[in-house]
TrEMBL record:
Name assigned to this protein: Peroxisomal membrane protein 11A isoform X2
Entry keywords, A to Z: Membrane, Peroxisome, Peroxisome biogenesis, Transmembrane, Transmembrane helix
Localization annotation: Peroxisome membrane
Signal peptide: none
Source organism of this protein record: Neomonachus schauinslandi (Hawaiian monk seal)
One GO BP: peroxisome fission
GO cellular component terms, A-Z: peroxisomal membrane
Primary location group: membrane
Keyword Protein transport included in the entry's annotation: no
Taxonomic lineage: Eukaryota, Metazoa, Chordata, Craniata, Vertebrata
Membrane-spanning segments: 189-208
Alphabetical list of PANTHER family matching this protein: PEROXISOMAL BIOGENESIS FACTOR 11, PEROXISOMAL MEMBRANE PROTEIN 11A
Length: 216
C-alpha cells in the first residue's frame, strides 16, 4: 500500500494510471458497442474516457505535442471558438508520430548494438570450444540465418529488459498517430489494447526506475 501511495504521489505515476484507464475504457467500449442492450454502459465508458483524457492534458511530456493537445483542449472546453480542431489535431498527431519514430530508431540502434555484442560473445565461445570450423551447406546457412538472427534478438532483449520494455511501449504508442494520420488504419480495439499495454509498460518504468532505458 505504501508503494502504491508513493507511486500515485508522483506526477508521472498518476499520468500512467489515467492513461491506462483511458485506453481500458476505449478497449471495453469497442468490445461492447456491437452488443445489444449495452448502449448505456458504452456511453458511460465514453464519458469516463473523455474525462480521464481531459485530466491528462497537463501531464503530456512531449513539448510540441503538449502545445497542440492543449490548444485542442482549450477548444473542447469552449474557452476559444476560432480554432480549427482538425488542423491542430493533425499537427499534434504528426509531431507525436515523429517523436515516436525517433524513439523507435533509438531502440533499434540499441538492439543492433546488443545483438552485435551477443554475436561477438557467441563467436568467442564457439572458438574456445572447437578450432575446427563447422561444415554447413549453402542450404543449411540459408535456413539457419533466420533462426540465428531471432535467437540473437531474443537473447539480447532477454538480457536487457529496459530495452524490451521501451521498444514495446513505443511500438504500441505509434499505433494511434499512424491511425490518425491515415498511414495505417486501425480500429479502436487495437488502439485501446496498444494504449493499455503501453500504459502498463509506463507504470512499470515509473514504479521501478531501474527499468528505465539508459542510453550509452
Amino acid at each position: 500500500m505504501d508503494g502504491f501511495i508513493r507511486f500515485t504521489n508522483q506526477t508521472q505515476g498518476r499520468d500512467r494510471l489515467f492513461r491506462a484507464t483511458q485506453y481500458t475504457c476505449m478497449l471495453l467500449r469497442y468490445l461492447l458497442e456491437p452488443k445489444a442492450g449495452k448502449e448505456k454502459v458504452v456511453m458511460k465508458l465514453k464519458k469516463l474516457e473523455s474525462s480521464v483524457s481531459t485530466g491528462r492534458k497537463s501531464n503530456v511530456n512531449r513539448v510540441i505535442y503538449f502545445i497542440c493537445d492543449t490548444i485542442l483542449w482549450v477548444r473542447s472546453v469552449g474557452l476559444a471558438s476560432g480554432i480549427n480542431k482538425e488542423k491542430w489535431r493533425m499537427w499534434a498527431a504528426r509531431h507525436y508520430y515523429y517523436s515516436l519514430l525517433l524513439s523507435l530508431a533509438r531502440d533499434l540502434y540499441e538492439i543492433s548494438l546488443q545483438m552485435e555484442q551477443a554475436a561477438h560473445d557467441r563467436a568467442k565461445r564457439e572458438k574456445s570450444l572447437s578450432q575446427e570450423p563447422l561444415g554447413y551447406s549453402v542450404a543449411d546457412e540459408e535456413t539457419e540465418w533466420l533462426q540465428s538472427f531471432l535467437l540473437l534478438l531474443f537473447r539480447s532483449l532477454k538480457k536487457h529488459p529496459p530495452l524490451l520494455l521501451d521498444t514495446v511501449k513505443n511500438f504500441c504508442d505509434i499505433l494511434n498517430p499512424l491511425d490518425q494520420l491515415g498511414i495505417y488504419k486501425s480500429n479502436p480495439g487495437i488502439i485501446g489494447l496498444g494504449g493499455l499495454v503501453s500504459s502498463i509498460a509506463g507504470i512499470i518504468i515509473v514504479a521501478y526506475p531501474q527499468m528505465k532505458l539508459k542510453m550509452h
